[in-house]
């Protein structure tokens, strides 16, 4: 065998089979791709043989021979497609040797083929043969799963995703057959023949079936229930369960996938999970097709003449469209569509991401810092083939996107940056019957993103949304997905149901759905009150969080409304203009690396003079903290294919030095910065915020003041001509815990987009005017504290001058800074008219704050002390009519 070198078992087996097959076939008779594809099939055959042999207590190699004979003798056998290998003779491969080496890796006490087969498919994607070595050698290709947007779905998660749709449809179908026992736990009272008729009448499809995880989820929900009917008892035995599994698999399941091997793997998994004997056919291959689920007519009885490709390729350009009415004639002729669609579709944009494309082909190119630098290197003769492949992939992606945009099938999801998952959701609604249901695992962006907002509003106002259970991937339910990523278990109904859908947000484990206190009912009207521009879902953590958010919106208008909104008195009370100054990708040809300016002279404000030119730092979000424009240096991220930059935190001793400035990775000529700044902007400083963040960070909104310099697009600016002291009040509002709580109820991923921020409740400038705190004008009371927090270095002298409290930077004192922030947070809880119960709830929701040994939040105690002291003063001064914090 080929030396494994710690390869996954499936890849080790594959490499052995490929090496043997090449020797068998000889040079030039078959393409390497055909040989490798058939060897992948033999690897999956080996896995199925081991899992089947384990259950029967027999020899795996004998089982492989028996399964091969049975599968190839009948085209209706579920394993027939998997065992057909056209480019090689599988019997001449060292199957017995491989089975002997890997039986321990693949055997299981339960009939579980899903895990090893799914792991094998993932390994096939991740590991590729190295073309630069003489001897066959497989190595990791930087995890192409991230590029493809496909991930292994845990069965327990699939089970939770499909349960609402499956149980609703089973109840409806049983009621039609007059055999509904009253509950899913009461099926031992249902006659076995009746339940058999119910199951036989169901049609359940996964249009992106992969290795069958979502269909297995349905099996996990249905089989135990049906087994109780077969047994006539609430305690069915294994034979009853096997009969139930086979009844469902043979009669109810359908599938489609863009990849032929995935379709074959799905059939094999369902056959194995059904506990069929070698000679038993299992699910019919005719019910599982290869093709593009997103293209092709739904109910038209005509087949496209385009031939199917052997394998799914980038953006499916060689796949034949699926004509659903033709391929699944028995479903559409009798029921006008499927009863249930279940799927976890690819989470992939219909766009080539250059860095990810290169990561799997030329990792060194992927590591190059900017888009412009990568483009220059790709254009060289050395990478001519890479340039050709990249351009071809871009052309294919554009062609596919144009076809989708021109299609009449996508009314809601063919806008903006196309994403396959949202297209699959709309397509699924087209292929279900009038009374059908859909169950998905998709990014939570389906309910929160700008480009899906019209679609989500359509789903809610038409009563199609049944439930949405949002998860954050902190517990790594999807192992290869970032822990901050949000995804949802989404259930839709074709028939209008209650317009109050059921929501759960910020779940971490599937069992979190069982906690009734997490569930929130939201109507379209309630959603519109909280996000009036986009009508997207607020991500509230329970009923109390919803009540607080609604109170904040009652107190305050949204930050920037839509022009022409007749119901709003002032759509932009702060006169804010949202500005993304320099795009880190498209403007990168203007950037000058800090290394190119090594001979220049650094000025006190961080600028670099070289020759006759002055260069200004390009600020990035990673350099900034709340009230701190010197939080970190920006650095290149060596060796990280998916993150071009990183940061180096500033030491406390440096923050105490008012002449200290942080380093940027790139600089721009001062003329470029002046040209990018609106001519009527009156200040020599900016305020803005980091838009890469998360609802579970210690703070979601990170706003700060910056010197007049170049700023990257991931730190968008909020330009306003308001005086500095008023702007300091706005900055404090954005950085307050009260506001942050509202903000984190609205962000659905890791980007705090402008459409989110503009719909948050921001207090208007009038709140601060004419009001006093302890006898001092509120604007001055706030802005003096902001001055001490922000004016800590000479590169913000212009900001300090405009504030007018002190002519030199303030000392950096960490303990004092905490006291100042607690005072400001305590005040803003009052300005939002929140009760102490509300305040406790909000602070307790900030789980990332440091705790003391007694379990209390240290900062919480400080804020509550301020809140209570201000409560006494507010009450006393309000009685004298000298202070009002009402914004109504």
Strand content: 5-15%
**Average of the residue pLDDT scores:** 89
Counted beta strands:
25
Distance between the termini: 78 Å
Based on the structure, what is the oligomeric state of the protein chains?
single chain
Poorly predicted runs of 5 or more residues: 143-147, 301-317, 881-888
**How large is the radius of gyration?**
31 Å
Summarize the amount of helix as a percent range: 40-55%
Structural class category: alpha/beta
Strand order in the sheet with the most strands: 5-4-3-6-7-9-8-10-11
Describe the biggest sheet? 9 strands, mixed
Q: Kindly give the count of domains.
A: 4
- What count of helical segments does DSSP give? 33
Globular, elongated, flat, extended or rod-shaped: what is the shape?
globular
What are the main properties of this structure?
nine-stranded mixed β-sheet; alpha/beta; transferase; S-adenosyl-L-methionine; Rossmann fold; 888 residues; MethylTrfase_TaqI-like_dom; globular
Write structural notes for this entry.
This protein has 888 residues and is α/β, with parallel strands linked by helices. The protein folds into four domains: 9-148, no CATH class; 155-347 and 423-494, Rossmann fold (3-Layer(aba) Sandwich), CATH 3.40.50.150; 354-402, no CATH class; 577-879, no CATH class. 41% of the residues lie in helices and 12% in strands. It has 33 helices and 25 strands. Strands 5-4-3-6-7-9-8-10-11 form a nine-stranded mixed β-sheet, with helices on both faces. Strands 13, 14, 15, 16, 19 and 22 form a six-stranded mixed β-sheet that branches. A hairpin with an 8-residue loop joins strand 1 (127-129) and strand 2. Mean pLDDT is 89; it is low at 143-147, 301-317 and 881-888. It is an enzyme of class 2 (transferase).
